Request: fold
Amino acid sequence: MLIKIIEITLPIFAIALVGFFYSRAVKPDLGGANKLVVEVALPILVFTSLSTKDFQPAQAGWFSLASVALILLSGALTYPWVRLTGSNWRAVLPCAMFTNVGPVGIPLIVLAYGPAGLAPAVILLVLSNILHFTIGAGLMSGRVDWRMVYANPLVWSTVLGLGFAQLQWTLPIWAQTPLNMIGSILVPMMLLSLGARLSTSEVKDAKAGLITAILTLLTRLLACLLILQVIPLQGLERGALILFACLPSAVFNFLLADRFQQSPNQVASMVIVGHVASLLALPLGIWLAFR
Reply:
């Protein structure tokens, strides 16, 4: 099991470290590259993953339900202790609910389960993003902006991918090849970008960030275990849900906190410290997923 954990986590942190040290030395402007990856490569990867013949939308229903339940239950379980501690619940709840599925989650699940893990990882990404753009943003701002959903290319690439899978349509080889090549750049670029982002981050309110990051992680794990008692997922889907619960808080939470001025320093600390704490959390998640 130890070798399995090392085989899965080492490539993730190795690539992120390359981005970290490269950014420290060169200080590149990755804004354009990140925009290209998020707006082009990510929707293409979502479409190619969901449109494959191996993906069965009907069989993914219980996993999708469990994923949504994990996000919502994590927030519900977090709310009482946040109010008891006097923390800003509008800032903390999204950090407990929404994790870094893209840069960390997709590589982790794919490395753990091979190509078969890509479809559930993409489902997690899409559902998490839709709820993040609506409920997550609504928690911090006080209102829900539905334009962030129907104007999101991830939503449309998901609809197209599910449509192709349901109707068993396939693209010709000349179209599949370039789409697969574009989608394949996503995972390494996300990890390089994550390392570069962390290299420029400053940790403030470190103690509060550490305590909150640990508590939100434990809350997500508790929510996951409770859900698995009600929705008994098996094999890959069970493991993917557990790994999802062990991911660090999404970087997008800081962007929302900064935009709506909801304790941005505390959220930044939670995000950064959470990624460092994931050095311990991810091996634990892998052990739970495969035991």
Summary: The chain is about 80% helix and 0% strand. The chain has a mean pLDDT of 82.
